[in-house]
Amino acid sequence: MSGRGRSGGDGAGRSRGGGRGRSTGRGGGRGSGRSGGGRHSRQRQQNHPQSAPTTPAKRRTDANDDDGSYRSRSTQNPHRSYNNNNQPRNRPNTNGPSSKKDGEKGASAHTVSEEYRIQLTRVLMNLRETDDQDSITLPADLTNTQRKFVHELSKQMGLKSKSYGKGEGRRVVISKVLSGGGMNSMMGSIDNNNSNNKKSKKKDGDEAAALPTEAEYKLVPRINVGKRGEEALKKHLSKFPPSAKEEAESRETGSSLLLKNNQDVAVVVDDDNMTGDKGDVIQEKTSLLALNDLIVPSQDDTSNYKPSAISMYNDWHQKQKAKHERMIQQRVQNYKQSQQQTKSHQKYQQMMKQRRNLPAFAYAQDICNILRIKRNQVVILTGDTGCGKSTQVPQFILDDPQIGPTCNILITQPRRISAISVAERVASERCEPAGQSVGYSVRLEGSSSKKTQLLFCTPGVLMKRLHPVDGGPMKVDGCDNFNRLAGYTHIIMDEIHERDKNTEFLMIALQELLDEREDLQLILMSATMPTRDLAEYWCGVGQRRLQQQKEKQEKEQQSMYESSGDNGENKDGQMTAPYSKSLDDDDWGDDGAAMPVEINIPGRTFPVQEFFLEDVLSMTGFVNEAGGDATDMAQMESDLLALMGGPPPKLSSTKGNGGNNGKVGTDSPMSLFQLENTLTCVMCNQSGFQSSEEFGTHVALCDGGGNASMLELEDRVKSVDVSSVMGFDVAAAAAASSSVPEGKEDTGGNADDVDGFLDIIVEDDMEDYDVDEEEELGIIGGKWDGESPFGTDTAAPSNKITLTDQEILTRYQSMYDDEATNYDLTLDLVRYVTKSSYGDGAILVFFSGWADISEFSMLLESTPPFNDRSQFVVYPLHSGIPSKEQRQVFIKPPNGMRKIILATNIAETSLTIEDVAFVIDTGRAKEKSYDPHMKTSTLQEAWISQASAKQRKGRAGRCKAGVCFHLFSRRRHGFMRPFVESELIRTPLEEICLQCKRLQLAPGGPDEPNGIPAFLSKAMTPPHSKSVTNALELLVELGAMDEETNELSDLGVCLSALSLEPRVGKMVIMSYLIGCAKASSSMAVAMSHKSPFAIPPPSMRKASDMAKIKLSDRSESDQITSLNVLRNRDILSKRGVGAISGWCRQNFLNFSSLNMISDLRKNVSRELENLGFPPCSQSGYHNRNGDFNPAFLQASICAGLYPNVAYRRQGDVNFSTMTNRKAKFHMSSINAVKSQPLSTKCQVAENQVEFVVFGELVKGKAMFTMENTTHLVSPLPLLLLCGQLHTRPIHFAAAESTSAATNKPPTKKAILSLDDWLVFLCEPETASALVVLRQRLDSAFSRITSDPNNFTDLPAVEKDAVETLSLVLNSSHNAAPMR
Is the pTM of this model over 0.90? Predict the structure, then answer.
C-alpha cells in the first residue's frame, strides 16, 4: 500500500505544493498531499526556484491601465514557447492559477465566491444611495480573503473601510468619505502648530510672543509677481486710485461692509435734514408710480392702451397660419414633381425590386394605416438588425398618397456618419442626389433645400430646432409649445436603445410638445429596446389635450341642454343629455391615457449558438491543463478502485481533438462516480455526498469513526462486494465480456476485470453515436461545417474524467480572477476554434480596451501557428486607430487564411463584418460613467449588459450561421444589467441644465414644479438627484446661473449657445479678455473632441512618445501640444492633403480626427459671432497677445477649467485635488511620459508648490487620473481669474537676534486665500494691489458678457486693468523659478 496521501478536489493537503494529507497506508505514515497539482507545482518550483507564483492581485498592480499608466502584461501573460509537438513547454509559473483558496493565508480576493461578491456589491451600492446612513458594520465571521475583497471593493467605490477589534470581535466598518477643501488642505497642520505655540507662550505671560514666527509658515507658498509686475500694479493704482470700498476690501475681505453701513447712516441723516418740500416731492413720485401700476384703463380710454398678450398671440397665430398654408401648397407642388421624376427614372424599378426583398416592405401598408389616424401620436417600431426600418419607414410615409404630399419628416440618427450615410442611401433608392426630397443636417455639414421632405439629422441638431420661433409669444394660455417644430409633421427617432443624453432629453421635451401639438406624430425605432418600458413611458401622451377637449365638449352640451328648457327637450321634442360620448374611449386607458401603437418587424439574421464559461472550460479542458486537478482526480479514483479489488482505469493524456480525429472514442474509461450518484463510505457507512470531490475528500481522511486501525479499515474495504457498491452484476458483465465478437482479439478479460466491464458499459452507452449522426451535428472529418449546429460533445472529445459544470466553474474561479481578462484561456479557445472548424470563418474577439488588444496581439505573434502569416491575419479594431486601418477588417482574406479581429465595443452595433463566424466575448468593457457621490467621472472595466452580450452574439449571425463563446458564467449573465443605462445617468449634466434654460423648457427655480430637477425627473430613467444638484452647483460656481432662481446670467446665456462643455466655453470667453482668443478657441475644440494622436503599436510606443514631446515644445501642456499640432497642420495645408497625411503618419496623428478638429474651429467661431463677439481667428484687441506666449495660454486654460486644479509639494509623486483626491497623470497625457519633469518626484523648493490644471478627473480601479493637463508655472492666474479671493493681514513676531536692539516691531504680511483652499503669503502692498485689480477685472468680464458687441468699449479704469493684467501675468511667469 502506498504511503502517498490522497485527497479529493478541495485537497486534504491545504497547500497545493507540498501539502500534507493523511495516509491510508499500512504504516500509518503521513505523505505529501497531492491536492491541486502539488506534484506539478513542486516540479516547476524545482526547475525555476526564482519564479515563485504570484497572485493575480499582485500582478494587476502594474497591469491597470485604468489608472492611466501604460501596462506591460508580460509578467501576467508571458508568451508561450512550444516544443516540437506543438505543445506548450513548462515555464515559470508567473501567470499560473492562484494556489490559495478563500480563507487561506495569502489567498487572492478573487477566490471569494461569486455570490458573495455580487451580494456585497449590492450592499455597498445601497449604502452610497442612502442619505440617512453613513456607515455599515459587516459580520465578524468574515474570512481573511473576504476582508481583503471588502477593502478592495470599498476603495473602488469611493468608500472608506477599516477593521476594528481583535480575534472573534474583529469587524470591518465601511463608511462614506467626506470630501472638501479648507485651509488645512494646503497648509497642513500649520494652524494647529500655531495654536499650540500660542497657548504655551501665553502661559508665560508674554503677549507679544503669542505672534507666530515666519518660520512657522515656511510651507506656505509665496506670491512673486516680478519686478515689472510690481511696477505695473503701482502705475495702475496711481493712475486710477482705489475707491473707499476697494481700499477697505484690499486690506481685509469684508471690511467694506462696515464702511457701507456708515455711508447708509449718513445718507439717512442727510435725508432727514432735507427741506420738507423736497421730501414731499420724493414721496409723491413714489406714490404715483405705485398707483400707476394699479390703474386699469377704462374701455372708453384706449388711446394709450397696449394690446393684451392674448390679442398679440392671436395676431401672430393668424400670420403663422397663413404662412403655413402657403408653405403647404408649395410642398404639394414639389411633391408631385419629385414623385414623377423618381418613378420615371430608369433605375427606379431595379431599386423597388431590392426594396421589396427587405422584411420591412411587407409592413408598409400597416404602418401607413396606423399613421393616418391622427390619434396615434406615438408609434413604437422594433425591428431586428437588417430588416430595413431605417431606410424604408420614412419612404413609406413619403410615398403614401394620403400622407406624403403634406408631410415634413425629421429623422434622427445617433451619429453624424449614420445620418449622412442613411440619407445618401435613401436618396439613391429614390434615384436622386442628396439635397432634393431627401437631405441631411449634421454638425459642420448639411445638404437640403426647400424641396426636402425627409431630413436626417443628429439629436443635437433637433435640440437646436426645439428653440421657440423668434418673434412668437412663448406662453399664452398654456400654449407655450405651439411654436416649436411648427414646420414638421413627423419625428422619427432611430436607434433609441443607445440612449445618449440628447435622445433622452428630446424624449422629455417631445412628451410635453405632443400634449400641445395634435398634428405631430412620433415614431420610435429600435432593435433591442424593451417595448414594454417604452409603452409605459409614452402612455398618456395627449392626456391633457384630451381632458381639455372633453371639458369643452361638456360645456357645449351643457349649454345646449340648458337652452332646451327645464324638461330637457329640444324643439323637436327629443330628449338631450348633458354629455354624450363622442370620443372613441376604447383607444384610451382607464385614466384616459393613450397607449402607443407597437409594430414588430422580423429581421434576416442567421442562427447563432451560444456557449458560456462553463462550456468553454469543458471544451478546452483549460482547468485540467492549467491546474492538473483532473489528473489527480483520476489517480484518486484509480486508488479507490484498487481498494475495491479492481485494476486501475486507463488514464488518457490526449487533449482536444487528438487521438480519435474528433469522433467519440469507445475506449474512454467510465469514472467510478459516473456509475452511481449515491456514494457511501464503506469505512464508516456515511452517505449523502453531493459530489465526487466531497466523497473523495471524505475517503482520504476517513478514520472509520476513530475506533478502527488502518489495517481494519483496509480489511473493510477489501471485504466489500463491488457489485453492491456499483449497482451492477460484475460476474454477468465479465461473462458478457468473455464472448468476443468476430474480428476482435480476445484480451483475456475475466470476471474480475473491472476495466473490461467499464469498457462494455461505455460501448453500450455510446453505440448510437455513428457517423450519420455525426454528420447531422455538422461534424465532417472532425470539424464543424459552418452550417449545422456546432456539436460540442463531438467537437471536443476527451478521455479525461468528467466533472460537473459547477465543479469546473468553481475550480476556475478559485484559480483565476474571472473579472480579469484571461489571455491564456482566450488563446486556448482560439486554438480550439481553429482545430474544430474550417478556416473560412473569421474570429471576432471583444476586449475591453487597447491594452488588452495590444497584449493579446503580441501573444498571437509569438505563438505558432498564429504567427504564420500564410494561415492567419490579425487586425486590431479600436476608435483610436486611423480610419484607413479600420477599413482593413472588412477585407475578406484569401482561401486558406483565417482572419482574427481584436476589437472593443466599437464592433457591437456600428460595424457589420460579413465573414465573421465566431465571436469570443470576454464580457468586459471600459465604461465611462459619472459618480455623483464623488463628483467625478469614472473609467473602469465593468461587466457588459445583457443587451450588449446579445449584440456581440449577433455579430456572428449577420450573413451566415455562427457561434458565440461568452467568457463569463450563466449565473453572471443572469445578474448583468438588462440594458445599458441612460447617458443621463452616466455623464455630468451641466450642458443639459443649460439647454433646459436656453430652450425655456424649465423656467422655474430648483424647488418649483417647472424647474430643472422636476423636468429631468420626467426622463424614462431619471438621473440621480445628486447629479442634478452637482450640475447646478457647478454652474453657480462658474457664474453662469443664479443660485436661488436658476436663471441664466449673461455668462450662462453665452455658454448655452456654444457647443462646448461649460468650463471650456468659459475658457474661450475669458480669452477675449486676456487677448489670446484664436489660440484658446483651438485648444477648446481639441479638448472637446477625441485626441488627435493615434494609438501606436506597442513596439512603436517609445517613438510615439518622442514625437509627442517634440510637438509639445517643452510646454508641459496637452492643450498647448494640440495647439502646436493645429498650427503645423494649417501651415502644411497650403501644400495639399498629401503633405498633411504624410506628416500625420510620421508623428502618429489621426488624420481624420485632426481634420475634424480643424473644421470644428470654424463652427465655434460662428457661434461666437452669433453672440456678438468678433471672429476669434481675426486680428484685433482680442488677439493682442498672440497665440505663442505660454503665460497667457496657461492663464486662459486656468480661468476656464478651475476648480480642476491639483498641487504637490517637494518630494511628492502624486497630486492633491480640491476634493482631497490623490491623482496622477493619465497615460495619454504628455506629462505622463517618463522623460517629462512632472513624471518624477516634485523637485521644487520647500516653500513652493507645483500646480497642474486638468480637464477632467477620472477614477480608475486603483486611483484617480488627470486628463488634458497643463503645468501652471505661476499661481497668479488662479488669484486674478478664478474662484473667490480673500485677503487678511498677518503679523509675524520679529526674528530672534544676538544684537542689542530690542522691541523690534512685528513683520507685516498678507495672506491671500482662494476659496479657503489655496493659501499664499504676500507682501501687504502687493496683496492690496492684486485684490483691487481682481475686482476691476471681474467688472470688465461681466461687462463683455452682457454686451459682446461692444466689449472693447470698456471704461478707462477697466481697460487699463486689462492691460495691467497682461503685464502682471507675463512678469510673474518670467519670475517663476527655473527647473
Answer: no
